[in-house]
Design a protein that fits this description.
6-stranded mixed β-barrel; alpha+beta; Ribosomal Protein L25, Chain P; 4-stranded mixed beta sheet; single chain; 212 residues; 13 strands
Length: 212
Amino acid sequence: MSDAIFTLDATVRTDLGKGASRRLRHQDKVPAILYGGEDAPVSLTLEHNKVLQAQEFEAFYSHVLTINVDGKKVEALVKDMQRHPYKPKVMHIDFQRVIAGQALQTNVPLHFINEDAAASIKVEGGHAEHHMADIEITCMPKDLPEFIEVDLMDVALGQTLHISDIKLPKGVDSVELTKGESHDLAVVTVKAAKGPAVEEDAAEGDAEASEE
């Protein structure tokens, strides 16, 4: 993957408001804001085509980006992105500055591996029910992972993996787990598939109910 995907050129904009943002979008530009750290928030303008290309990559949302703001390089994370409800168009982006030596907090995607190879699924006919698609973490910028793997190879039928069961990279902590044991949320469950007998009983029950 090219590092160019993680580099965006931006200019500072002073013409603010809904009308100004609407005009920018008509010019194939994306209004954005950069905030965080000790510096004041800055309103930006980016090229829509470059943003549209970059946002197709999963890593774009969990990677430290370099934003060239009028020639000055700033490291930042995507914190929010507004899209058009039905057009392939990015409407607005919120960027948060990344400060070297200062811990950051963000969400990274979960990659479920060995799902097809797990005996509970391949042999016993179970299926994986994902409860989470990403996880909120805190770490130093240098330790930020693009994704975190969840290995299902040894997960038994009927077993649920929680956040505490996930092996996090060195230097990475779960935000939820820092809140206490009650926040050890379920990540994935290997559930038994419904057998024919169960489905037939359910169908017969529905039929009897309709006859009544």
